[in-house]
Write a structure and sequence with these properties.
Length: 444
């Protein structure tokens, strides 16, 4: 059993997080319920920031809000001195609505719309991360019309395939993201460098997610450092910022062996130092974008167990009141999770079961073949490491309302996202007037 943050077994032999009994949380707020450990979130944010400070390295740590974007998370990131990485107008709007400092917002995305770019320029955000030639045209045109000059980094694809699921690899040559280093990156750099509307600060790359092996970062930094050297020696262009993205892996099950945050940062700094020094390049300011590695292990999802089905000599299915609607990752990526029965933490009589969701899909399976303490209807199942890409990817499939979310700490629980209702589900439905008129006639 792997505990992180403030998770522990209390005197009732229940799972406790942030000094709050999870069984009581389920009673008070209902299930499914996302539970966030405030202490663990802050600890991770601080460790990223403090490690750079201890190494005396100029840096920006930007929370990748796509992992989980709420106003409360933006507040926490701001209080801990982080910048913010957004990838859509909705994330940008959330950040601005929370009062997050606009100069510390970085805007990513491979297909930013005209409206999103206008919103970002109007609010004078810190920097765009430019992804393609069309975006250069849009930013230049809109900035010119508004009489603005904007900061930007150019995203490049270093041609590195991280050892992770193919859907979350992003740095390989064949990717929808960024300019390849072979020919496109130089053309984009020349275009942006000479633009009157865009100030080019440096370059960005991101090789993937849930990464444990830092060799991919080393190869990517080496190739990007070669590009910086080319720009300096042949074109007299020098840049002071290097954004190495994020993707640092976390613990989901015992199969995962992530490095510590300090190790990730220290290794990254050493790699940049090595490759830039070898090429007589000035050491750049390092930007990184951790998302999952901040919020992932700080999240736990609580479910209520319902029906079960035993297929002799094959397996026993145990169903919960959520599933792929609140956590699509197992269906999308074959993601694996660990879990416990929150109200039976002292029960050592284990039973191997598979956890099924309630969606009308055979593929709605949260966990295959896990040993749990004799799960029964009404028990509370706690699934660990669900802070990242669960709520942010949740849907209303089968017209199921999205769960509530609470932030726990110091024995208190604060509701930070309310549970959706059935009225929320139908609030945007519109019945054509001709249907209503026909119904009125038929009722006469």
């Amino acid at each position: 059993m792997y505990f992180t943050g403030t998770s522990r077994i209390n005197e009732k032999q229940h799972l406790e997080i942030g000094g709050v009994d999870t069984v009581e949380l389920a009673k008070q707020f209902g299930t499914p319920l996302y539970v966030l450990d405030e202490w663990e979130i802050r600890r991770r944010m601080r460790e990223f920031v403090s490690t750079f400070q201890e190494l005396d390295v100029s840096a920006q740590v930007a929370y990748a809000s796509k992992a989980l974007c709420t106003k409360t998370l933006c507040y926490l990131a701001n209080e801990e001195g982080l910048s913010l990485d957004v990838v859509s107008g909705g994330e940008l709007y959330t950040a601005l609505a929370s009062g997050f400092p606009k100069e510390r917002i970085h805007f990513h995305g491979n297909n930013k719309t005209m409206e999103e770019i206008e919103m970002a320029i109007d609010n004078e955000i810190g920097a765009f991360v430019i992804d393609n030639f069309y975006e250069i045209e849009l930013i230049e045109r809109i900035a010119r019309e508004k009489g603005k000059v904007v900061n930007a980094l150019i995203r490049v694809s270093p041609g590195i395939e991280a050892h992770t699921h193919e859907y979350i690899q992003t740095g390989q040559e064949d990717s929808k993201f960024g300019f390849n280093l072979i020919d496109q990156a130089l053309q984009a750099t020349e275009r942006v460098y000479h633009s009157k509307q865009i100030k080019l600060l440096g370059f960005h790359f991101h090789i993937g997610s849930q990464i444990f092996d830092m060799n991919g970062f080393d190869k990517a930094i080496e190739r990007v450092a070669d590009f910086y050297q080319l720009l300096k020696e042949q074109f007299q262009m020098e840049f002071s910022i290097l954004n190495t993205g994020g993707g640092f892996g976390i613990h989901y099950t015992d199969e995962d062996q992530p490095l510590t945050i300090r190790s990730y940062v220290q290794t990254l700094v050493e790699m940049v130092q090595k490759h830039f020094t070898m090429r007589n390049l000035a050491f750049p300011e390092i930007w990184i974008e951790p998302g999952r590695s901040i919020i992932g292990e700080a999240g736990t999802t609580l479910y209520t167990i319902g029906s079960n089905k035993t297929i002799p000599h094959i397996r026993k299915y145990v169903a919960v009141d959520g599933g792929m609607m609140d956590n699509p990752r197992p269906a999308l990526y074959q993601a694996k999770y660990d879990a416990v029965i929150a109200n039976k933490m002292n029960n050592n009589h284990k039973e191997k079961v598979s956890i099924a969701g309630k969606a009308c899909e055979s593929g709605d399976m949260l966990i295959w073949d896990i040993e749990l303490s004799q799960p029964e209807p009404g028990d509370i199942l706690a699934v660990f490491s669900t802070g990242a890409y669960n709520y942010s990817m949740a849907s209303n499939y089968n017209r199921v309302p999205r769960p509530a979310m609470v932030l726990v700490g110091d024995g208190k629980a604060d509701l930070i996202v309310r549970r959706e209702t059935y009225d929320d589900i139908i609030q945007y439905d519109i019945v054509p007037e001709r249907f209503e008129a026909k119904k009125a006639i038929q009722s006469k």
